[in-house]
Amino acid sequence: MRPSGRDLSEMRPVSIETGVTKHAEGSCLIRMGDTHVLCTATIEERVPPFIKGSGLGWVTAEYGMLPRATNTRMRREAAAGKQGGRTVEIQRLIGRALRAGVDRVALGERQITIDCDVIQADGGTRCAAITGGWVALRLAVDKLIKAGIIASDPLVDHVAAVSCGIYAGQPVLDLDYPEDSEAGVDGNFIMTGAHKLIEVQMSAEGALFSRDQMNTLLDLAEKGVSQLVEAQRAATT
């Protein structure tokens, strides 16, 4: 039995509310169970120096957790004077994942920054940030198309992410914190809407896993991503 009482292949309730901030070109609040992430998209008519003049666009991301997103207060990273290694790793992951679903030629020489701020954490914050980040990106790109700034849609497919793992010896979908903290195997699966893999993060956290178990987790991830893509569609159409 999972701590939440969910079936092994059951996602937490997912909701995506759009237009939650006034100024951002795209914004949403994604809730995956008790994990809540605010995602905003900012369009800038510039690109990083290393691609300037190439005609290619760029999508990047920043990620952070509010001090009371967790059970105990975390010190703001700005107060510490630098970002932690986990934060840097996650925001690079979000940027890589979202760029995989973008035709950067069609985007043109401009940058879209996705800011992902965790309001409340209960496991799977990076997956929620990627899934919600795509929605914010979709809304920002729609504004560029509507304004006639770009001629064709640069988003080639949906991008979504979900966690899977081995908990109490069983493969489970969409780990919450009680499961994540005790899982023998923990993985994050990032896919397109067509189930093409963008990135897989898998690690043994106390138990080794077989090829068959990994295939089972991949099947669970495909099911979860399909549900997340449907939520993305509902939020953006």
UniProtKB/TrEMBL annotation:
It catalyses: tRNA(n+1) + phosphate = tRNA(n) + a ribonucleoside 5'-diphosphate. Phosphate binds at R86, G124, T125, R126. Keywords: Nucleotidyltransferase, RNA-binding, rRNA processing, Transferase, tRNA processing, tRNA-binding. GO terms for molecular function: 3'-5'-RNA exonuclease activity; tRNA binding; tRNA nucleotidyltransferase activity. Its EC number is 2.7.7.56. Pfam families: RNase_PH (PF01138), RNase_PH_C (PF03725). Residues 10-140, 159-224 form the Exoribonuclease phosphorolytic domain. GO terms for biological process: rRNA 3'-end processing; rRNA catabolic process; tRNA processing. Homohexameric ring arranged as a trimer of dimers. Belongs to the RNase PH family. Phosphorolytic 3'-5' exoribonuclease that plays an important role in tRNA 3'-end maturation. Removes nucleotide residues following the 3'-CCA terminus of tRNAs; can also add nucleotides to the ends of RNA molecules by using nucleoside diphosphates as substrates, but this may not be physiologically important. Probably plays a role in initiation of 16S rRNA degradation (leading to ribosome degradation) during starvation. This is Ribonuclease PH.
